Amino acid sequence: MNIGILTSGGDCPGLNAVIRGAVRKGVRSEHMTFSGIRDGWRGLLEDDIAPLTTHDVRGISGRGGTILGTSRTHPYSQGGPEQMKRVIAARGIDAIIAIGGEGTLAGAARLVRDDGLPVVGVPKTIDNDLDNTDYTFGFDTAAEIATEAIDRLRTTAESHHRCMVVEVMGRNVGWIALHSGMAGGAHAILIPEFPVDYEQIYAWVRSAHDRGRAPLVVVSEGFMPAGADEQVADKGRDRDGRIRLGGIGNHLAPMIEDATGIETRSTLLGHLQRGGQPTAYDRVLATRLGMAAVDLAANGSWGQMASLSGTDIVSVSMESAVDKLKLVPQQRWDEVQVLLG
Prior knowledge:
glycolysis, 5-stranded mixed beta sheet, about 350 residues, fructose-6-phosphate binding, Rossmann fold, 2 domains, kinase, identical protein binding, about 40% helix, AMP binding, 11 strands, about 15% strand, alpha/beta
């Protein structure tokens, strides 16, 4: 059996560990061969494919990014499924492991359902917003990077008696802000799921300052203050029309300073959260998901993806993962309230 592997969408720490886990498991246990598809769906549409051996994946589980490259090429462009079928037949590919986030898995599920392509999935995103999996690899690394940044910013904030606003990624969910904010001891955590008004933000900042602390505000890029009409997106839109979120930290900092009289600075972490070496947790999770994806392909479980349930790796449908976003639940928001201010 010859399996093609592709990574699509935004890069993410742990992608290489998935590739390594899949290839090592497939070659050693199933006597499979593998083909590396370059730059996501683009490589499958343009026949940019090369053999992928155990030699190629040596020592890559700790490397960030993806050795296969990635892109946001839409699977229904450039001839779409019919072109893919021609390439798959010419290359002798029997199955495809698609490693990606919401857009990748939605496209993969459609390719299986509507066009009969042999695709299985592995969920990937630092945002942790895919449904029907407890965690996605990459999230732990992003939260760890954000926490380290918060720890560093705290020391300079305390030296100057300033308020620091730290903007983290996450798009329309607040998992990174929630976890890094709790880990870093933030005095205000602002996430898209639970808008609060400006006065509440100012109250949290004043409360910390009145106790002699340097107030620390962690805000998710998709946060909208209560009563606001739209998200802050000072970078416009990407070529696919999606809003490029970013700038809420710079929006909040001068308002906090004006309202409280406390000198305030903002820091946008941006793509730092997606780069560098994955944590041990993400390496292990990614490796296990890659090995499980090989089992799905061997069993012909098209349209399924490997998923984390508790500590177990299970099989779920790709469509169930992209049906809705996995939002921060009310109970997680409620429990953090006692820590704020």
